[in-house]
Structures
1.
Amino acid sequence: MTRLDRYAVFGHPIKHSKSPRIHRLFAEQTGQTLEYTAQDVPAEQFQSAVTTFFAGGGKGLNCTVPLKELAWNYVAHKTERAQLSKAVNTLALQADGSLLGDNTDGIGLVTDLTINHGIALSGSRILILGAGGASRGIIAPILEQTPHSLVIANRTVDKAVKLAAEFDNGGSITGCGFEVLKNRQFDLILNATSASLSGCMPPLPTGLLAKEGVCYDLAYGNEPTAFVRWGQENHALKSLDGLGMLVEQAAEAFFIWRGVRPKTRPVIELLNSERKP
Ligand code: ATR
């Protein structure tokens, strides 16, 4: 009997990961036969767990918190977008037996915004809150959409300034602290801080969101996050969380592994329907 093609997500913690469900739904929908499991892998066991997984016939891996930077260091051969983001969320076994590292988070976000929600990024004034790994992963794909301007604001100002400088090739990206956001307005505000998950909000001035502006939290939960609630209170045209991004980054990984692009809308709708009371 031949074994099913094996895929997995590694992370710590991993119990609540929606990735196995999403990939099984994709497989069902596209008629692909595969196995996708979740494995709890603490950072110190990452290297041996990856080696064991691929030595045992694994075909592809997703890596999530806190392993994306470790995966970036682990894999020699990376796509350009992974190289830039300094994080790898997808490992794919190549025909020659080598591993390719990719990062599908940024394209997942852009697809969710532009295709699923019809939000044009070109010509928009965009603000990213936070200057950690989550921010780094989305900057290049956002700049590719030619926004009018991109501002990165962070509690530790120096990190935002440095991150912006790394991606600056024409002056449309700048880094700053939250206090200088006063009297500025943005068409799209993306929350890439980890504050929202713990129910905290960065100190944002009123009037920051332009009329008909959109808020998007990269995090998601069963309940609206603190940032999604902030968007609603500030009359955002849409105030969204990152569930769509999660499904889109998974679809991109599925495509890399299987060469087939699953339909994401039915999967997003199903997961959304399950978290509504
Ligand atoms: P990730 O990989 O999820 O981006 P990270 O690299 O630890 O995680 O970055 C977390 C981000 O959330 C940082 O930008 C952090 O700000 P600092 O660089 O000043 O630490 C931001 N963050 C976390 N808690 C915050 C809070 N309560 N208010 C504002 N920003 C916060």
Note: The pocket of 2'-monophosphoadenosine-5'-diphosphate is lined by residues 130-134, 154-156, 159, 192-195, 200, 202 (CB under 6 Å).
2.
Amino acid sequence: MRQAGRYMAEYRRLREKYGLLQMFKTPEIAAEVTLQPVKALDVDAAIIFADILLPLEGMGITIEFAEGEGPVIHNPVRTRKDAESLRAAQPEEDLGYVMESLALVSAELADEVALIGFAGAPFTLASYMIEGGSSRNYLLTKKIMYEDRETWDILMDKLSRTLTAYVLAQVRSGAQVIQIFDSWVGCLSPADYMEYVLPHVAGIFGALKARGIPSIHFGTGTADLLPLMRAAGGDIIGVDWRTFLDDAWARVGTAGAGIQGNLDPVILMAPWPLVKSRAKDILDRAASRPGHIFNLGHGILPGTPVDIVRSLAHFVHEYSSVQGK
Ligand code: CP3
């Protein structure tokens, strides 16, 4: 999940001096930011400080993180010609800075802290490319999907190939687990997911599985998509807080599949006793079964008290170590 960010004073101090893209592209800064939450919170894994949109630059897309607006794309993909003119990004050349950041972090991390690499999933990235930024209804995206299947497949195929090469390069540079973020896939019906998304995302997970690389497949608003996401691939399926953890796990199927989640990040703004009781409920629902990664159901929000997050990590370690004993 996104665990670095503006809720941390150390991050804000750097962010006052540098633009976001500059931070991603300077390996020393990216490595420092990656390690900030690991040091401050005592969490079990670091996630490399990068963004799902970065590989799009290598494909010919211009991205900007506009203050207070979120990501903006200045040359959105709207026609077949737009899709055809996209390149497949070359990870070592176009995203060499991510590889360097991974190598730096990998050398710094203690053995018991895992290093997570990541990429956006084809659907979520296609939605940014087509809409030109964040979206509410994904109208333009769905319009291309439904009305221009060839353009859709060209775009999704190029994304899937770019992302596969990208995550494999991350593993060569020190990532031990790959998380694929299909953050906005919950806007699709199960039928549309099967038809337009599953075959493309399956290619990425197939390449990881063939090499024995552990993977996490994350989405939000996906209650009814969970079995299909599992079919598409991923050893661990990420879920948000809109489903009870044990119900979600049953939908994914407990045989061989793990689950990640699923505390509402907004709960972290509530008084500690409530945070603790919601965290305990999640751990009770996981019931010490192997394969649960405790996490938030989505990225941490600016304004979240760091003390509460630290107490949460501590509580999860403590309670899960005595659970079932
Ligand atoms: O925590 C970490 O160090 C991991 C790094 C990370 C970032 N983005 C850095 C970032 C990760 C894993 C991401 C993934 C990402 N980026 C996703 C998928 C995960 C999810 O949350 O659903 C998505 C959808 C994006 C696209 C994106 N980038 C959005 C919607 C935003 C928020 C814009 C805003 O104004 O808050 C970003 C910016 C971004 N990427 C931030 C960080 C830490 C916030 C940067 C800042 O405000 O300084």
Note: The radius of gyration is 19 Å.
